[in-house]
Amino acid sequence: MRFGILTISDRSSRGERPDSSGPVLLASVIEKGGSLSKNGLIPDDQQTIQDTLIAWVDSGDIDVLLTTGGTGFSPRDVTPEATRAVVERLTPGLDEAMRARSLQITPHAMLSRAISGIRKTTLIINLPGSPKAALENLEVIFPVLPHAIQLLTGDPNSETGHNPQAKSH
């Protein structure tokens, strides 16, 4: 799978603090056999986020675009709004799974407004800005990502092993 990792942070984009979430996500993706197609760091600006998401997805170089940051309650946290503006279909099951698992760790998971969705054949997934939380959320959904990409790209083998009528021997 080809990944894009986009860190969204005013402070990191201004050089006031290092991006710690992007590198943690990259290490996890590589460890799991994924490849990095695009990596970036931008401020919490809705139009900039939307433009970047569109450009990256429409390049055709990414299967899964992970964003990190901008998913909370702060007035500058607009990643979900930018994502919603560019996706064609939402994927609430991923969001629900991430929040359900995160709630087992911290009640602050209720404050996440992260969403995910599909644009063309790319899955866009908002992750928290905290490196620990971003990694925990990615771990929850990573097992289903290969099948999701198979389905999105029309892979003829996408339904192998998913026939509810098939009997196990």
How would you describe what is shown here?
With 169 residues, the protein is α/β, with parallel strands linked by helices. It has a single domain, classed as Molybdenum Cofactor Biosythetic Enzyme, Chain A (3-Layer(aba) Sandwich), CATH 3.40.980. Helices cover 40% and strands 19% of the residues. The protein has seven helices and six strands, in the order E-H-H-E-H-E-H-E-H-E-E-H-H. It has helices at 10-13, 21-31, 46-58, 79-86, 92-103, 131-141, 145-152; strands spanning 2-8, 35-42, 64-68, 89-90, 116-119, 122-127. The chain has a six-stranded mixed β-sheet, sandwiched between helices. Strand 5 (116-119) and strand 6 form a beta hairpin. The longest helix is centred in the N-terminal third of the chain and has 13 residues, at 46-58. The radius of gyration is 16 Å and the shape is globular. It starts with a strand and ends in a 17-residue tail after the last helix.
In the CATH hierarchy, the third-tier topology is known as Molybdenum Cofactor Biosythetic Enzyme, Chain A
CATH architecture group name: 3-Layer(aba) Sandwich
Q: How many domains?
A: 1
* Portion of residues within helices: 25-40%
| Low-confidence segments | none
SSE inventory with pairings:
Layout: E1 2-8, H1 10-13, H2 21-31, E2 35-42, H3 46-58, E3 64-68, H4 79-86, E4 89-90, H5 92-103, E5 116-119, E6 122-127, H6 131-141, H7 145-152
Please provide a brief summary of the model.
This protein is α/β, with parallel strands linked by helices. It has seven helices and six strands; from the N terminus they run βααβαβαβαββαα. The mean pLDDT is 95.
